[in-house]
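re: that chain from earlier
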Amino acid sequence: MSGSARLTLWTVAVLVWLCPAAWAQKVDVVTLRNGDRITCEISNLTRSMLSASTDPLGKVAIHWGQIVGIQSPRVFTLQMATGERYYGTLLASQPNQIVVGFTGGSVALSMTDVVELVPIGQSFWRRIDGSLDLGFSFTQANLETHGTLNGAATYRTQTRQVRTKLSSQVSTREDADREYRADLGLSYNRYLANRWYAIGWAGGQQNDELTLELRTLAGGGIGRELVHTDRRIWSLFGGAAYTRELYRDQPLEQSTEAAIGGQLDFYAPANDDYNITNQLVTYINVGGRRRLRAELQSAWRQEFLADFYWSLNGFESFDSDPPPEEKENDFGITFSVGWKF
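^ sequence. v structure.
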C-alpha cells in the first residue's frame, strides 16, 4: 500500500472515530406541537432543552414545551421531577405522554414531569455538551484592556455526571501591572435515590487582586435536589474539603474545611431561551484559625442565534481572614458572547 493510500485510510478512520454522529442511524421520532415529525438521534434532555442530530439540519435544540411525543426503539433513562428513574424503550403514546417499555410491561408518564432523558449505550462524545464564551473591552485613554474566557463541558450517563469548568479574567493597563484571575473546577455527581446524590470536586484558583498565587482543593460530600422541574433546579450539599494556599510573600498553608453549598438555577419556561445559574459554596476552617470563605458565581445567558448566546457573568470571592493588609473580597461583572455545543 502506498504512503498516500495509507494516509487516506488513517484520515478516514480518524474521521469515523471523531464523528460517530455522521454514521449513526437516525431512529428516534420527535413529534412537535405544530404536528411536524422529526426523525433524529436524541443526545439528551436537560434544562428543558432536547438536543438531537438530524441528517438535513445537523445538531438541533428543541424546547421541551414544543414537543408532544417521542418514540424510539433505543433504551433511555428518564428522571422525573419526583426523583424517580425509569429505563426502557419509548413506545407510541398519546400526545403529551411518554410510554416507557420494559421487560414485562410499560408505564405511561406525563411529559411535563420528565426533567432529564439520556440514551443508554450512546458513544462517549455524544454524551458531552458544553459552552464557550469570550468577552473583550478596550479603553484608549490609558490603554486599558479587559478580557474574559468562560468554558464548561458536561458528560452524563444514567447514574453519573462529570463537569469541568473554567472562568478567567485578565486586565492590563499602561500604568499598572497585569491582573489575572482564574478558577478551574472539576466535579463528579453520582445520582442516588429520591433526588439525593454523592458529590466530589477538585479545583485550582489564582487571583492577583487578592495576591493569591495558587489555591488547590479537593472535597466530597452528599447533597439533595430540593426542586428539579422543567423550569428550575434548587439543590443543597455539604461535605469536607482539603485546601492548600499560597499567597504572595506568605508561607504555604494547608487546612481542612467544612463545605456547605447550594445551586439555584432558572431556565426558559417556554420559547424564551434564557438560563440563569447561581452557585454558592462556603468553606469554614476547622481545627485552625477562625476563618470563612465564600465563592459565588452567577450568570444570565440568553440565546439569540441558533447555538450562539450572550452572557452576563458575575462573581464574588470573600475571605474573612485574608493575609495582613489584603482585601477581604473581589467582585466583578463581565459581558461575553458564546457558543454552545
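Residues 27-122 form a domain with the SH3 type barrels. fold (CATH 2.30.30).
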